[in-house]
């Protein structure tokens, strides 16, 4: 790591430790969806009303329900039917994840492009996590997708910081070093502050630990495998990982080189676009 990256990393860690770093808040619509979903007696009508206040989010949920991985014989054209198809818990988790896009906005074009890139990769990882979970585990696919959508959430405060520090913004190598080393710590802090469930709250800090071996398959395993799959064929160091040796793969009990699995996961990459 170069001197600028070290300096910025130290400044950010100090700011985190002293609670001086301003972290993004959960979007208001996500808070309202979560509040509604916490009611055990919630009706589909009520959740529909809450989600329908955000027309872009409503359209995304309908599109997801009609994606190849979920599509039934009849196309879904309205939000009420989409939520009926998915169920209230499922719908609320996916909606909370998808609405995160609202905080991926920047003042500068350089940071905006980087944020778009991070969000695009998060959507791909969410789709692959969903498919792996649905076909190869007893866990909940909506939680796996939510994990994929937020696994890089810690990148946001770093990019916001960079907008106010041109020295970092103009040095992409240093910026990438800082992102890679700090985003897991910030991600854990963000999800903890947003009261995410325990099974996801520590995901940003652990999904890159390739030696991690939990007692049983969990959402961190699923996101880890999805991240590695989505980096295949790129020039990123994660593309060179020997996937077949991972503890997460062994728990999933899949052949990572199977043509059938590759076809399924390739299709899943675009399900949340």
TrEMBL record:
Gene3D superfamilies: Hypothetical protein af1432. InterPro entries: HDOD (IPR013976), RNase_Y/CdgJ (IPR052340). Residues 23-210 form the HDOD domain. This is HD-like signal output (HDOD) domain, no enzymatic activity. The lineage of its organism: Bacteria, Pseudomonadati, Pseudomonadota, Gammaproteobacteria, Pseudomonadales.
